[in-house]
Design goal:
The chain is mainly alpha-helical. The chain is built from one helix and no strands.
Length: 66
């Protein structure tokens, strides 16, 4: 009887370890995708601000030589 309980306990411990390992890998893989999306979003925001300033900048009027 003790041997059966030991085997079931060992199998359950192995299953929990496997599930936790898979959860850990999934969590880091999911976060890395979100981090990449966030970095790309920040880069496009910076690019948009820079382009907006270039487009809407007032041009200087040069004095005429009349």
């Amino acid at each position: 009887m003790k041997r059966t309980i030991f085997i079931y306990g060992l199998v359950l411990a192995l299953a929990v370890f496997l599930l936790k390992t898979l959860e850990h890998r999934f969590l880091f893989r999911q976060l890395s995708v979100e981090i990449y999306i966030g970095i790309i979003g920040v880069l496009f925001t910076i690019l948009g601000i820079w382009a907006g300033q270039k487009i809407t900048r007032k041009k200087e009027n040069l004095p005429s030589t009349d």
